[in-house]
Amino acid sequence: MDRGTVGSANRGRLQVEVRTEGGSEVVTPVGELDHHTADLLREPLENAVEEGRTRLVVDCSRLDFCDSTGLNVLLGARLKAEAAGGAVHLAGMQPVVARVFEITGAEAVFTVHDSLEDALSG
Given 3-state DSSP classes, what are the helix, strand and coil percentages for the chain, each rounded to the nearest 5? Predict the structure, then answer.
């Protein structure tokens, strides 16, 4: 089920696509995730957990950039999902985004998959 694209003209550097696939909520940020666009990702992640969909899969394959604010959004979603008995899985990270997780050590607190298909089958 596609819930549409979240975004606005003034924050057009990021669009977020959300769909439910099996027991997972698949959230796909497209573009640049930074302090100007972070709420566009935070809101659907928080809404999913509030609605009981706690297995969150973030498809990072179309994410071109992620700064510390974006990382904090994902860490916050992880805490909320885990508190509700779920988890956040990251899939298909581009090298530039993966490097942020590697440098900060954040990759150690997420389940990271090479592809969306791997994340959905796991």
Answer: 45, 35, 20
